[in-house]
Amino acid sequence: MTRYKLNDPELTRRRFINMAMGTTATVGVVSLLGTLGGAHPVFRLTEDKKPPMEGDILVHADEAKEGVPITMADLSDTQVTAWPMGTDADGNQIIRKGEPNNLLALYKFASGELGGEANVEAAIDGQVVAYSDICTHAGCPVPDAKDGTGMFCPCHSGQYDPKQGGIVVGGPPPHKLAQLPIVADGDNIKVAGFFLTHPYPYTEDASWEAAKEAAKGA
Ligand code: FES
């Protein structure tokens, strides 16, 4: 039976057509993936969508003061939200809020209060610390708890402790908030490097490492 099929000119013609169609479809899929890959945000980051970059100044995210540089005097153990602000190729200042996941939370704790899993070397004077303010569970912004017990995510009751490095102390978040290294620059606060662990929406260190490389080359 097989021998007849192989020798049947009609079947051979059909097989050729099927192969040609399959090849066309494969080329189409590869081409589409190439187009999607080229359009992937990681590989086409505009300045406003880049993650916080070394040298960025932190500015207020609060609507009433948005874009105003945050000073040390603005900070306390109550959360201040911030955006990173960088410059484009022409030297124009760009607030990186085109990526909502760039929202940050800043705190200044009394000397000796910051500890646990916090990297005190990446905090100013071991007291001023910056975290991603985006919940690692499903991406909601995380304000302070109303009762003063750390940070509380209103979406599914996730709880974090900013004094202990943003560790999870309640609810469903899978991992701690990512700490962003910062340094003082006069009265301003500057970003000193990438997040120390992967922030939301990155689901693993490897994907965050790839995003960092893409941001450097973007
Ligand atoms: S998004 Fe924060 S706990 Fe679910």
Automatic annotation (TrEMBL):
PROSITE patterns: RIESKE, TAT. The keyword Endoplasmic reticulum does not apply. Its cofactor is [2Fe-2S] cluster. The keyword Chaperone does not apply. One of its GO terms (cellular component) is membrane. Residues 91-191 form the Rieske domain. GO terms for molecular function: 2 iron, 2 sulfur cluster binding; metal ion binding. This is Rieske (2Fe-2S) iron-sulfur domain protein. Keywords: 2Fe-2S, Disulfide bond, Iron, Iron-sulfur, Metal-binding. InterPro entries: Rieske_2Fe-2S (IPR017941), Rieske_2Fe-2S_sf (IPR036922), Rieske_Fe-S_prot (IPR014349), Rieske_Fe-S_prot_C (IPR005805), TAT_signal (IPR006311).
